[in-house]
């Protein structure tokens, strides 16, 4: 089982750990509700070193990035990050993640760890000789600082001439005499930043960020809190909402496809777009008490119409909620359905995403 560079420190803090896609990761440092509200009202710091960090470099790197993604990444100039996904030749999703355009014609792709070897193989398969693919997961750590007070904390850490970052912007900065790449990105729906740090300096930078946020109530936060936050935003998790059996049209990702450009899987996606998609991903809220879980069936008038992919209890809407796939003709906001929870079927309705909207 792989471990992030902060693993020993987390054990010292008696952090509750979780086995996730081949990694031991922190599921909670303290009370999950406290961690959740720290992100929604102040700031939370996440160790997300379990994500894969794959560097694409060399003269042909820009051309490779253009063909592996259905999104038009030619608009992602140096110093900008963008959400993207990678499809196979059949138009199904191999993985999704964020691609960061770094200086010197380099790109950093962060993806879920479950199939990182598959993605590296895929990139090498389609790379010309003038492109290098490097797995930086062990040599570079990754933290995420999220919450309305995250800018305040960043400004305390930054040098006086550090300019504010626009959404998806990327810049270099120094924290505790350590060169760090910072981007204004995240997975929570709050104002936030992600940091890329040399692994041998990760613990020092982690402590420095926590110290800078101590006066506003920053907390270290785990995966349980992060999963609730991302679910309230309707963000997709690979292995739950998307995988190699799902197309971007089923997952609601069609706005990220640019058919004016060439990319791997284009012909297949054109055919899929012309056909009627049988299922659609939707969000739902329960009318009564219950905790929906992944794999639960979704019904309408005693007919099974789909499956829950992610579920939980939302502190924001104060009820059970989740995401799931249903037959396309039922995928309208306001449609009343039933969700299988243990041995019961609980009344629910399909709602528009996201569940959470920042004020």
Describe the structure.
The protein has helices at residues 7-12, 32-41, 61-68, 116-126, 150-157, 202-212, 223-232, 266-274; strands spanning 2-3, 16-20, 23-28, 44-47, 52-57, 81-87, 93-102, 106-111, 132-135, 140-146, 170-175, 178-183, 192-198, 219-221, 279-286, 297-300, 303-314, 319-327, 336-341, 344-351. The longest helix has 11 residues, at 116-126. The chain is 20% helix and 35% strand. The protein has 359 residues and is an alpha+beta fold. Helix 2 packs across helix 7 (223-232).
Short characterization:
This protein has 359 residues and is of the alpha+beta class. It contains eight helices and 20 strands.
Topology readout:
Blueprint: E1 2-3, H1 7-12, E2 16-20, E3 23-28, H2 32-41, E4 44-47, E5 52-57, H3 61-68, E6 81-87, E7 93-102, E8 106-111, H4 116-126, E9 132-135, E10 140-146, H5 150-157, E11 170-175, E12 178-183, E13 192-198, H6 202-212, E14 219-221, H7 223-232, H8 266-274, E15 279-286, E16 297-300, E17 303-314, E18 319-327, E19 336-341, E20 344-351
Parallel strand pairs: 1-3, 4-14
Antiparallel strand pairs: 2-3, 4-10, 5-8, 5-9, 6-7, 7-8, 10-13, 11-12, 12-13, 15-18, 15-20, 16-17, 16-19, 17-18, 19-20
Helix pairs in contact: 2-7
Keywords:
single chain; 359 residues; alpha+beta; Gyrase A, domain 2; Alpha-Beta Plaits; Elongation Factor Tu (Ef-tu), domain 3; 3 domains; 6-stranded mixed beta sheet; 6-stranded antiparallel beta barrel; 8 helices; 20 strands; globular
């Amino acid at each position: 089982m792989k471990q992030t560079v902060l693993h020993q420190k987390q054990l010292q803090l008696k952090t509750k750990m979780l086995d996730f896609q081949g990694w031991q990761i922190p599921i909670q440092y303290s009370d999950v509700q406290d961690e959740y509200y720290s992100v929604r009202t102040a700031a939370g710091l996440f160790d997300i070193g379990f994500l894969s960090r794959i560097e694409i470099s060399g003269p042909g790197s820009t051309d490779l990035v253009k063909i592996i993604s259905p999104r038009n990444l030619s608009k992602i100039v140096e110093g900008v990050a963008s959400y993207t996904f990678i499809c196979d030749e059949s138009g199904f999703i191999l993985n999704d993640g964020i691609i960061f355009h770094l200086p010197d014609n380099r790109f950093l792709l962060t993806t879920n760890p479950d199939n990182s070897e598959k993605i590296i193989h895929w990139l090498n398969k389609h790379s010309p000789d003038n492109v290098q693919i490097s797995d930086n997961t062990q040599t570079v750590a990754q933290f995420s600082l999220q919450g309305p007070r995250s800018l305040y904390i960043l400004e305390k850490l930054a040098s006086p001439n550090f300019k504010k970052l626009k959404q998806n912007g990327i810049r270099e900065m120094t924290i505790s005499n350590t060169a760090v790449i910072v981007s204004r990105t995240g997975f929570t729906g709050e104002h936030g930043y992600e940091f890329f740090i040399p692994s041998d300096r990760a613990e020092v930078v982690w402590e420095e960020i926590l110290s800078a946020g101590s006066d506003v109530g920053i907390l270290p936060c785990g995966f349980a809190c992060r999963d609730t936050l991302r679910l309230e935003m309707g963000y997709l998790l690979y292995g739950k909402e998307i995988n190699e059996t799902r197309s971007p049209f089923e997952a609601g990702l069609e706005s990220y496809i640019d058919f004016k450009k060439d990319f791997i899987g284009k012909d297949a996606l054109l055919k899929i777009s012309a056909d009627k998609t049988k299922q659609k991903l939707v969000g739902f809220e329960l009318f009564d008490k219950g905790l929906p879980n992944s794999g639960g069936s979704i019904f309408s008038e005693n007919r099974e119409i789909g499956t829950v992919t992610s579920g939980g209890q939302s502190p924001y809407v104060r009820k059970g909620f989740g995401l799931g796939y249903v037959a396309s003709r039922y995928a309208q906001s306001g449609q009343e359905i039933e969700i299988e929870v243990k041995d019961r079927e609980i009344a629910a309705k399909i709602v528009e995403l996201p569940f959470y909207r920042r004020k």
